[in-house]
């Protein structure tokens, strides 16, 4: 859009009422609210009457008038009480406080009545600036001086409980005298109220009255303050109320009985998980279906604890007989079913038969159903039995463990003689990825073991799994190996249906599972699975394929983030916010105030506000022009400043004036009369009203006709309709838009009075023009100023009219002021160090009360640490430690720069970060997994930019502020620090422990340099997916940022990775750490009650930690409070939980040191046969496989590797060799950086291995006829990238 315009257009903004009747504007009103705190008080206590909730509909200040209510006896209205009310009225205070001394004097009027009581009633009248008023009345009951107030009773723990029907119920209260009763000065000394009695009552759903607890349920507790109910006391899915009532033995008759109500909700029984295991392809030999049931409420439940009902239907043509109906169980009147369903030989003809079973608990509850189709083939063969881990019960597998191993067992001779013996077929296990359609993800190692008359077909395990993706195993069979290879070769990730159509059969299928978390453990389980088609007498087992490395993970489904749509949504929210720019929405209008000094500089007219006539008795006064030189023009200039302290609505033609100094105005004369009485320079408060939406009348120079258009219409469109030639593109600019570039008005000739008002004079007119130059944030202000000065110089040289030169001079002055102001703002930003992570607009309330009462972690000052490092001593990363004021470890000035750089405001303004960086965000109300039938489906997080994350987790409104705790506990984010920077150098200031030997930075540097040296040649080596390969293998993450609002944090979890240090840049945190043995000791007793994995950090410190200490004996732990600049060391193997007590941002870095740790890390990625890690074998041939470490000691592994290496595809081998060299090179690069580690002999990665791998890579590339030269890859393990090595 052009930034400067010279065309002269005539615009008159006028709100039209033609054809669009306006809704009536509501009349302002006030609401009075009064509360007595407390509603019952002893005469010697403090009493408060609060009217703070009173309000004006426009948000204006109120006046408060206090007095006695009619319910207050005359003898109780002593002068001291009356004085309190009068003083509050004089100060217009919204609340009054009656001190114990005054209330005691008034209470003395009760005399000697030990149980006397009186009502103190107070009336509050509130009034606004328009004279609207209303009142409210409330009272408090005052108990006599010597009468006893109620005892205090409070619950221990939460009063809203949710339990399982198998849980026991424990309720507890504490009692005592009310605090104010103990403080009564006039109470007779030595007089006691006696013992406090607690009575428990019970009420269930449907009961109208409370019943004694003992009459309803058996309380097992002996302490009257406790209730203990045995498990299974309640039915699932029910709701119960318990009330504890406290009273003194010597309770006066008028004293109230305080109570505590507990609300207990009993969870409904979840449906049991059911699946049928049996053949999908059966024969004319007998087969059996078996039901496996898992009850989440009773994992040890037996099959006898459930009821079963089987169903069967055959897939037949219309009119044909349902073959299932002829099975023996279905021919009886009342069939009895169990967990197994057997079909004997010849009972079912060939065809497809659908079996289903309905299972429910014997004790009742919801029922579950499982379905299983069986294809009975016209052949005879033996049945298979499945063996699989106990993941089948939960459907969840730890992604770190990879795919589990399964097996199928077949009886070699068969139950029905030779014709049901094992067939001669070719078998191969596959792992199937079940997303939209089942797809063969990879072939698995398939081996066979024959013993004791049985043949077991085993699948290999391991290999990478994607979290949240569903998988299952299939055992495919073919007549020959060639048929199997032809059906599965030459196609990447073929669908299961496609290979079955190519002549393969599904011999067995495992239950489905989802890769997510650690399974619920247990031994393997034998079940009846699927049959296989008979061929001949010989059994052939498929040759296994070598899966040396996980295939590249399939990219997550890309999500399209429509940034324009998000911006539009943000705009709509701002447009509909309740108080736009310090204004207030009233109906379809916006009301706002402006404080102006005289002279005002406003031209008034009644013709610019025709749309208001129907609502205001046909009279309304509005603004027709804002003239330069008046205070209104200066007010508008202040509104347009970007750095204005307060965002306000400016004044423009068409605005209606409602009041002046609180007095309503309807005509021009009303306004003039009020303003004329003011002295020059005196301030007037004007309340304006503007239509939020409405038509705009645009008037162009003659002969063009005036037109009425929508406020959002483009000026060039209006000009086209009016018949006026305009070449500029302009848009409406109401309520804060900066897109208006030109505003030109045709006004009547005016006469000014001394107060700055002007009035139209008939028959005279003048042309008054005004232009607005719009400068966006991204514009070059200096260049704009230079160009305007060139225009001014040209105007003077060409001797343009004086008004044109003054116009340009004024514009030059305005731009220079903008530039000077911008310099001041930038200088302030460059030197000011922010104290908080978030600006006030987005800041969540801090929670200092949740700080640890005592710091028990080992402490050390930064000065002592620096001295220790200078002496050459190392840091102990085996126990937690808090380093206070670690800012001195930073280079001079670096700490302030870090705090300035890493703030929410700066991150939101980073255009590159906003475009490229995305966070995984889980809304508070979104489940991370959902149960569909018997399967657990993992949900996908929302991928949002940082600015959206700040709005979701930090931003609140005055009406609904963002409170810490349950609103923010899900918001903590931990991200790779390199993903938040353009250049890694931005993180250099955060690396404060350069004296500590940390292998990770050197290893990361090697990877980066190796891939930089490879350049574009990597694309010729890996033609498909080179960039993805670089992303997955090129970066070694060891630097992280953790940030979140107050109340966020990670739940209690073990630190199983490397040790790390965490330095807090902004905010405040609380840490708790404990060792594994203490955690296990407490968890054995408390795990089920506390649900550690589901407890957020906020709930842990708020509720669970006191319970762990008091009830479960948690003792051996350390705590720390971490402030800005403090550094905490977290060792490996400890359990930790941290909570942000204020909006926080921290940096943490993992540490890798020590030979044992480095050796284990390297071998786990390269060569660890006992854990199915064979990646190093890519660098060897079948003839040199004996050179692999430890291979000669395992003949079975050696033979298997020789066969498997021959079947490795070229692309797979090349990618695998590069991964080995990347891992080994990262370790060998430490030989010069950290010579004490002796890395050349530390692991399977040796210089000889590097040479072997490079030689093998070159041979594979030549076999592939690749043009890659490998000139960037050193021949020897010298790892110097300054010069490329020669071939």
Describe the structure.
The protein is of the alpha+beta class. The strands form 16 sheets. Strands 48, 49, 54, 55, 56, 57, 58, 59 and 60 form a nine-stranded mixed beta sheet that branches. Strands 26, 28, 29, 32, 33, 34 and 36 form a seven-stranded mixed beta sheet that branches. A hairpin with a 2-residue loop joins strand 30 and strand 31. The longest helix has 30 residues, at 802-831. This is PDZ domain-containing protein.
In short:
23% of the residues lie in helices and 27% in strands.
List its salient traits.
single chain, 1287 residues, alpha+beta, nine-stranded mixed sheet, seven-stranded mixed sheet, 27% strand, globular, PDZ_sf, JMJD6_ArgDemeth/LysHydrox, PDZ domain-containing protein
Q: List segments where confidence is low: pLDDT < 50 over at least 5 consecutive residues.
A: 1-25, 111-115, 179-193, 518-568, 608-617, 727-766, 1280-1287
**Beta-strand content:** 25-35%
Number of helices: 29
The residue-averaged pLDDT reads: 76
Sheet having the most strands: 9 strands, mixed
Structural class estimated from helices and strands: alpha+beta
* Beta strands, count: 60
Helical coverage, percent range: 10-25%
End-to-end Cα distance, whole Å, is: 58 Å
Q: Gyration radius, to the nearest Å?
A: 41 Å
Any idea what the shape is? globular
Question: What is the fold's blueprint, element by element?
Answer:
Elements: E1 30-31, E2 35-37, E3 40-42, E4 47-50, E5 55-56, E6 63-68, H1 79-91, E7 95-98, H2 100-107, E8 117-127, E9 133-143, E10 151-155, E11 160-163, E12 169-177, H3 179-182, E13 196-204, E14 211-212, H4 213-216, E15 226-229, E16 239-248, E17 259-266, E18 273-277, E19 281-282, E20 287-294, E21 306-314, H5 328-331, E22 340-343, E23 351-361, E24 368-376, E25 384-388, H6 391-394, E26 396-397, E27 407-411, E28 426-434, E29 438-443, E30 446-451, E31 454-459, E32 470-478, H7 481-488, H8 496-500, E33 505-509, E34 513-515, E35 525-527, E36 540-541, H9 563-575, E37 584-586, E38 589-597, E39 602-605, E40 622-626, H10 631-639, E41 656-660, E42 663-664, H11 668-676, E43 683-691, E44 695-698, E45 707-710, H12 715-722, E46 742-752, E47 758-771, H13 781-797, H14 802-831, E48 858-861, H15 862-870, E49 881-884, H16 894-901, H17 904-909, H18 911-916, E50 919-921, E51 929-932, E52 935-938, E53 942-944, H19 946-953, E54 973-976, H20 999-1014, H21 1017-1021, H22 1026-1033, E55 1039-1044, E56 1053-1054, E57 1060-1074, H23 1076-1090, ...
Helix pairs in contact: 13-14, 20-27, 25-27, 27-29
Keywords: Signal
InterPro entries: JMJD6_ArgDemeth/LysHydrox (IPR050910), PDZ (IPR001478), PDZ_sf (IPR036034)
Protein name: PDZ domain-containing protein
């Amino acid at each position: 859009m052009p930034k400067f315009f010279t065309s002269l257009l005539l615009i008159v903004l006028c709100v039209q009422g033609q054809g669009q009747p306006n809704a009536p504007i509501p009349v302002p009103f006030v609401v009075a609210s009064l509360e007595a705190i407390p509603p019952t008080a002893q005469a010697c206590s403090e009493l408060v009457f609060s009217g703070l909730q009173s309000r004006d509909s426009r948000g204006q200040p109120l006046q408060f008038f206090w007095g006695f209510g009619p319910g207050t006896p005359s003898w109780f209205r002593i002068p001291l009480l009356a004085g309190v009310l009068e003083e509050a009225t004089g100060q217009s205070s919204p609340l009054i406080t009656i001190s114990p001394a005054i209330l005691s004097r008034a209470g003395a009027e009760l005399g000697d009545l030990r149980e006397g009581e009186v009502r103190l009633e107070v009336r509050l009248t509130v009034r606004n600036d328009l004279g609207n008023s209303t009142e409210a009345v409330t009272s408090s009951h005052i108990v006599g001086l010597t009468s006893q107030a109620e005892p205090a009773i409070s619950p221990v723990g939460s009063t809203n409980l949710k339990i399982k029907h198998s849980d026991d119920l424990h309720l507890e209260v504490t009692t005592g005298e009310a605090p104010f009763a103990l403080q009564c000065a006039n109470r007779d000394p030595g007089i006691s109220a006696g013992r406090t009695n607690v009575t428990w009552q019970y009420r269930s759903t449907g009961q109208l009255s409370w019943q004694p607890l003992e009459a309803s349920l058996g309380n097992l507790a002996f302490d009257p303050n406790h209730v203990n109910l045995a498990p299974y006391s309640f039915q699932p899915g029910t709701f119960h109320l318990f009330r504890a009532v406290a009273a003194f033995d010597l309770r006066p008759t008028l004293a109230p009985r305080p109570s505590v109500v507990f609300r207990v909700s009993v969870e409904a029984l979840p449906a049991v998980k059911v699946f049928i295991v049996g053949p999908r392809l059966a024969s004319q030999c007998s087969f059996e279906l078996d039901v496996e049931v898992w009850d989440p409420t009773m994992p040890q439940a037996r099959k006898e604890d459930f009821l079963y009902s089987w169903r069967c239907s055959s897939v037949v043509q219309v009119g044909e007989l349902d073959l299932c109906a002829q099975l023996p169980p279905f021919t009886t009147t009342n069939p009895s079913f169990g967990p197994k369903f057997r079909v004997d030989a010849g009972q079912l003809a060939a065809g497809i038969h659908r079996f289903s079973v309905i299972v429910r608990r014997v004790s009742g509850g919801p029922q579950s159903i499982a379905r299983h189709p069986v294809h009975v083939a016209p052949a005879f063969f033996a049945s298979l039995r499945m063996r699989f881990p106990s993941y089948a019960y939960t459907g969840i597998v730890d992604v770190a463990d990879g795919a589990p191993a399964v097996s199928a067992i077949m009886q070699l001779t068969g139950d029905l003689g030779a014709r049901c013996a094992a067939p001669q077929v070719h078998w191969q296990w596959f792992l199937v990825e079940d997303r939209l359609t089942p797809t063969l993800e990879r072939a698995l190692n398939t081996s066979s073991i024959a013993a004791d008359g049985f043949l077991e077909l085993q699948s290999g395990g391991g290999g990478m799994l994607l979290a949240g993706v569903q998988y299952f195993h299939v055992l495919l069979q073919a007549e020959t190996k060639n048929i199997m290879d032809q059906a599965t070769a030459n196609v990447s990730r073929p669908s299961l249906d496609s290979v079955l159509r190519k002549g393969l059969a599904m011999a067995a299928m495992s239950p489905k599972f989802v890769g997510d978390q650690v399974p619920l453990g247990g031994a393997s389980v034998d079940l009846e699975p699927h049959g296989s088609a008979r061929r001949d007498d010989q059994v052939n087992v498929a040759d296994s394929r070598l899966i040396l490395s996980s295939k590249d993970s399939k990219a997550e489904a890309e999500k399209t983030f429509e940034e324009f749509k998000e911006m539009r949504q943000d705009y709509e929210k701002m447009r509909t916010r309740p108080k736009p720019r310090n204004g207030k929405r009233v109906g379809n209008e916006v009301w706002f105030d402006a404080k102006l000094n005289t002279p005002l500089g406003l031209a008034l007219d009644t013709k610019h506000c025709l749309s208001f006539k129907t609502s205001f008795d046909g009279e309304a006064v509005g603004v027709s022009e804002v003239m330069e030189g008046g205070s209104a023009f200066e007010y508008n200039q202040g509104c347009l400043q970007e750095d204005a302290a307060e965002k306000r609505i400016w004044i423009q033609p068409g605005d209606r004036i409602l009041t002046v100094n609180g007095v309503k105005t309807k005509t021009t004369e009303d306004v003039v009369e009020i303003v004329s009485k003011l002295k020059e320079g005196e301030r007037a408060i004007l309340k304006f009203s503007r239509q939020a939406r409405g038509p705009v009348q645009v008037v162009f120079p003659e002969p063009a006709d005036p037109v009425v258009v929508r406020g959002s219409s483009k000026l060039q469109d209006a000009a086209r309709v009016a018949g006026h030639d305009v070449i500029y593109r302009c848009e409406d600019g109401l309520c804060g838009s900066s897109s208006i570039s030109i505003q030109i008005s045709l006004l009547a000739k005016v006469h000014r009075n001394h107060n700055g008002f002007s009035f139209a004079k008939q028959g005279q007119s003048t042309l008054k023009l005004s232009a607005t130059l719009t400068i966006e944030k991204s514009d070059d202000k200096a260049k704009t100023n230079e160009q305007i000065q060139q225009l001014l110089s040209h105007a003077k040289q060409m001797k343009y009219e004086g008004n044109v030169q003054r116009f340009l001079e004024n514009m030059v002055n305005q731009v220079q002021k903008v530039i000077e102001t911008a310099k001041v703002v930038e200088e302030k930003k460059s030197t000011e160090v922010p104290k908080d992570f978030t600006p006030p607009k987005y800041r969540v309330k801090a929670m200092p009360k949740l700080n640890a009462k005592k710091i028990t972690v080992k402490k050390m000052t930064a000065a002592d640490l620096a001295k220790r490092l200078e002496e050459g001593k190392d840091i102990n990363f085996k126990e937690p430690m808090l380093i206070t004021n670690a800012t001195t470890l930073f280079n001079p000035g670096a700490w302030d720069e870090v705090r300035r750089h890493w703030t929410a405001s700066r991150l939101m303004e980073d255009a590159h970060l906003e475009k490229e960086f995305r966070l995984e965000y889980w809304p508070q109300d979104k489940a991370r997994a959902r149960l569909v039938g018997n399967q657990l489906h993992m949900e996908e997080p929302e991928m949002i930019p940082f600015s959206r994350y700040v709005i979701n987790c930090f931003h609140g409104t005055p009406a609904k502020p963002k409170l810490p705790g349950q609103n923010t506990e899900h918001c903590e984010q931990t991200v790779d620090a390199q993903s938040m920077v353009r250049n890694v150098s931005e993180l250099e200031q955060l690396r404060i422990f350069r004296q500590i030997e940390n292998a990770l930075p050197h290893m990361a540097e090697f990877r980066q340099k190796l891939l930089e040296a490879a350049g574009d040649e990597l694309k010729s080596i890996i033609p498909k997916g080179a960039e993805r390969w670089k992303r997955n293998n090129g970066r070694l993450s060891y630097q992280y940022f953790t940030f979140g609002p107050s109340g966020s944090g990670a739940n209690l979890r073990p630190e199983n990775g490397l040790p790390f240090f965490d330095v807090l840049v902004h905010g405040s945190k609380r840490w708790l750490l404990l060792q594994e043995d203490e955690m296990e000791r407490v968890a054995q007793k408390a795990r089920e009650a506390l649900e550690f994995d589901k407890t957020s950090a906020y709930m842990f410190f708020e509720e669970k930690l006191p319970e762990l200490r008091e009830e479960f004996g948690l003792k051996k732990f350390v705590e720390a409070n971490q402030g800005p600049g403090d550094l905490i060391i977290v060792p490996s193997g400890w359990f930790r939980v941290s909570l942000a007590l204020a909006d926080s941002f921290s940096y943490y870095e993992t540490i890798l040191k020590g030979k044992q740790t480095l050796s284990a890390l390297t071998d786990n990625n390269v060569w660890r046969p006992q854990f199915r890690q064979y990646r190093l074998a890519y660098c060897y041939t079948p003839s040199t496989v004996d050179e692999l470490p430890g291979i000669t000691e395992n003949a079975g592994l050696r033979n298997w590797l020789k066969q498997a290496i021959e079947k490795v595809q070229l692309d797979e081998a090349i990618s695998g060799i590069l991964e080995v060299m990347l891992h080994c090179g990262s370790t060998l690069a430490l030989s010069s950086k950290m010579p004490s580690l002796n890395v050349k002999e530390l692991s399977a990665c040796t210089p000889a291995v590097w040479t072997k791998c490079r030689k093998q890579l070159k041979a594979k590339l030549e076999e592939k006829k690749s043009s890659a030269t490998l000139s960037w890859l050193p021949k020897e393990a010298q790892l110097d990238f300054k010069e490329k090595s020669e071939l």
